[in-house]
């Protein structure tokens, strides 16, 4: 039986699961393109776009966490083949679906993507240097989202609109359903598997809460980038330039994390990234010029992706069984979905100023959790066998 070792960064099985994970999370970067096209065609209204996007991201996060808790790491080829095939079918069903059906199908697609993403998260959690593998994954994932978001509107969607984009996603999932048979059928047990039973430990929960809150802090202001630019009195093209700066800086941040992974202490690195992100957001809020707004946006994007792999290192440091690390994808995605959702409720009452208020609370809470993780982690280390 094929059993993967702990250091899988250069093996074919790791590349297969990398592909599975990248395709699973593609929609996170393609939602504006796909859902925007559906709105342009009159198949979704503005409120339904928000609902569909939130439902899909929540479904990915919940399914990823549930898969880590419930699914065996055996017979993975069959599990992933079925999940990828069903994911493709759900995307294809969206081609002719009505508005209400579209929201439900996006949720179903998200749940199946969560199963696919779990395989990649599980591989990273078992790696010898998980923070470097996580950095490689977020960098490749970002590059793939950038490339496909740029190509789709000029190719399949130029011919068939939203249906072309959905059919392209379905084709990628069908390809994955075939490719997984070249991947592993079983993953090696994580370290300390004999202790990895029962509920998650308190340190693991605190680490997951840190990741959840940081992602809520990050994604909420990113979603409101255009209103933030308008609030600063900048021209209409500011949001587009700032978005490009964020995405370009994310790639740089991911590459920097690949270099720093395993060398930098995760707790201090995350604290520094949160502080830099908060300062960048303050720069966006008070930007006196377009150049400063775009530069602050780039700094925000760098801190965003640079920090993500260190969530993995923090969780393994807090919980050597790595059960917490296997729930990280769920925590990050749930934070990414809940952040904009809660921010929207604040914005309804306070206007765009509510985004800054929510982000300040979220990052302060994330930093508090990070401090608590250090205290709880030290206590856990004293009683750890």
Q: How does the SSE layout of this entry go?
A:
Elements: H1 12-25, H2 27-40, H3 46-70, H4 76-93, H5 99-126, H6 130-151, H7 156-160, H8 162-179, H9 202-223, H10 225-231, H11 238-260, H12 266-285, H13 290-318, H14 328-350, H15 353-383
Keywords:
mainly alpha
Would you kindly provide a brief summary of this structure?
By secondary structure, the protein is mainly α.
Please provide the count of β strands. 0
Low-pLDDT sequence parts: 1-10
> Helical element count?
15
Structural class, judged by helices and strands?
mainly alpha
**What is the radius of gyration?**
20 Å
Biggest beta-sheet profile: none
Residue-averaged pLDDT: 87
- The helix content, as a percent range, equals over 70%
Q: Gap between N and C termini, in Å? A: 32 Å
Strand content: under 5%
Membrane topology: Multi-pass membrane protein
Transmembrane segments: 15-37, 49-71, 78-99, 105-125, 132-152, 158-181, 202-225, 237-257, 269-287, 328-348, 354-376
Main location: membrane
GO cellular component, one term: plasma membrane
Detailed description of the structure:
The chain crosses the membrane at residues 15-37, 49-71, 78-99, 105-125, 132-152, 158-181, 202-225, 237-257, 269-287, 328-348, 354-376. InterPro entries: MFS_Efflux_Transporters, MFS_trans_sf. GO terms for molecular function: transmembrane transporter activity. This is MFS transporter. It comes from Caulobacter sp. 73W. By secondary structure, the chain is mostly helical. Helices cover 78% and strands 0% of the residues. It has helices spanning 12-25, 27-40, 46-70, 76-93, 99-126, 130-151, 156-160, 162-179, 202-223, 225-231, 238-260, 266-285, 290-318, 328-350, 353-383. Mean pLDDT is 87; it is low at 1-10.
């Amino acid at each position: 039986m094929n059993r993967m070792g702990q250091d899988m960064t250069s093996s074919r099985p790791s590349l297969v699961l990398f592909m599975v994970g990248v395709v699973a999370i593609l929609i996170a970067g393609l939602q504006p393109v796909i859902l925007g096209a559906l709105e342009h065609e009159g198949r979704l209204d503005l409120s339904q776009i928000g609902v569909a996007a939130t439902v899909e991201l929540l479904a990915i996060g919940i399914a990823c966490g549930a898969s880590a808790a419930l699914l065996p790491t055996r017979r993975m080829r069959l599990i992933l083949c079925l999940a990828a095939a069903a994911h493709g079918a759900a995307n294809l069903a969206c081609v002719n679906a009505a508005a209400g059906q579209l929201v439900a199908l996006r949720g179903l697609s998200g749940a199946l993507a969560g199963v696919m993403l779990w395989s990649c998260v599980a591989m990273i959690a078992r790696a010898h240097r998980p923070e470097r593998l996580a950095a490689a994954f977020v960098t490749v994932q970002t590059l793939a989202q950038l490339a496909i978001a740029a190509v789709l509107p000029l190719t399949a969607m130029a011919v068939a609109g939203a249906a072309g984009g959905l059919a392209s996603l379905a084709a990628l999932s069908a390809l994955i359903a075939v490719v997984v048979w070249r991947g592993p059928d079983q993953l090696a047990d994580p370290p300390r598997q004999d202790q990895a039973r029962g509920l998650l430990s308190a340190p693991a929960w605190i680490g997951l809460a840190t990741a959840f809150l940081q992602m809520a802090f990050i994604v909420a202001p990113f979603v409101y980038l255009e209103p933030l630019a308008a609030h600063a009195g900048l021209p209409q093209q500011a949001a587009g330039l700032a978005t490009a700066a964020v995405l370009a800086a994310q790639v740089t941040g991911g590459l920097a994390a690949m270099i720093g992974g395993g060398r930098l202490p995760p707790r201090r690195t995350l604290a520094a990234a949160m502080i830099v992100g908060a300062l960048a957001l303050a720069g966006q809020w008070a930007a006196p010029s377009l150049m400063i707004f775009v530069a602050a946006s780039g700094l925000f994007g760098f801190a965003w992706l640079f920090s993500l792999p260190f969530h993995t290192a923090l969780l393994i440091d807090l919980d050597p069984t790595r059960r917490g690390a296997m729930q990280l994808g769920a925590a990050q995605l749930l934070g990414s979905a809940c952040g904009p959702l809660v921010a929207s409720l604040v914005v309804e009452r306070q206007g765009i100023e509510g985004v800054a208020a929510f982000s300040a609370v979220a990052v302060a809470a994330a930093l508090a959790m990070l401090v608590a993780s250090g205290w709880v982690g030290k206590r856990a280390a004293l009683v750890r066998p």
